[in-house]
Design brief:
Keywords: 4Fe-4S, Gluconeogenesis, Iron, Iron-sulfur, Lyase, Metal-binding. The protein has about 220 residues and is of the alpha+beta class. The protein has two domains: about 120 residues, 60s Ribosomal Protein L30, Chain: A, CATH 3.30.1330.90; about 80 residues, Alpha-Beta Plaits, CATH 3.30.70. It contains seven helices and ten strands. The longest helix has 18 residues.
């Protein structure tokens, strides 16, 4: 697989967001990856294990990637002035944090794996920062999410599924895991996923989170 799968989607992706930190890929993108994990997990974990690959593994300390990931998991946005102190803030909240580096080859240099862990539940996701603050989810619970256009959503009501199906064109649902009292689904779609479509799905009763796999 080539980096052609990792696409910029707009001029904003090149300019990047307003952010705290030296690099849109290593800071803003990392915060957004943490935000993605937070939206699915919905609370601060007791333990966070972060494994960096490629360029991230070489520069995560100097470029602020480590604090950015933690900030995102805490729910901070890319412009939050608390980002530089995120690790200290998390530890004061009782979060045990472990940073690891891996020499395993990945298809993109800025790859990171997050494990959010509590006594009875765990979320494992892998994502990449593709530049300009844009990110792409590549795996959730070891299930690949790289096939075409995709959404990850959580629901606590099975009755929500037909409504999601009606909102999407020829969706293929894959049940990824149980998390809290909700089910995490990955959906591959034929058409592009607009913000308007994401907002429409969020309004469906029983839908508790909706995340495009690229954004």
């Amino acid at each position: 697989m080539s980096d052609k799968k990792f696409k910029y989607k707009s001029a904003f992706d090149i300019i990047g967001p307003i952010m705290v930190g030296p690099s849109s890929s290593h800071t803003a993108g990392a915060v957004r990856i943490g935000n993605m994990a937070r939206e699915l997990y919905k609370h601060t974990p007791q333990k966070l294990i972060v494994t960096f690959f490629g360029s991230f593994a070489e520069t995560y300390k100097g470029h602020g990637t480590a604090v950015a990931i933690v900030a995102g998991v805490l729910g901070f946005e890319t412009h939050d002035e608390r980002i530089p102190n995120a690790i200290e803030i998390a530890e004061k909240q009782g979060v045990k944090i472990e940073f690891l580096v891996s020499t395993k080859e990945t298809e993109h240099a800025n790859t990171v794996n997050l494990e959010l862990i509590d006594e009875q539940e765990k979320l494992n996701l892998t994502a990449i920062s593709i530049g300009g603050g844009s990110i792409q989810l590549t795996e959730i619970n070891h299930h690949s999410t790289l096939q075409g256009n995709g959404l990850v959503f959580t629901t606590d009501q099975e009755s929500a599924l037909p409504c999601v199906e009606n909102a999407l064109e020829s969706p293929e649902f894959v049940e990824v895991q149980q998390l809290n009292k909700e089910t995490v689904f990955f959906v591959e779609t034929v058409s592009d996923i607009s913000q308007k479509l994401v907002a429409k799905i969020r309004e469906i009763p029983g839908i508790t989170a909706v995340l495009p796999t690229t954004g």
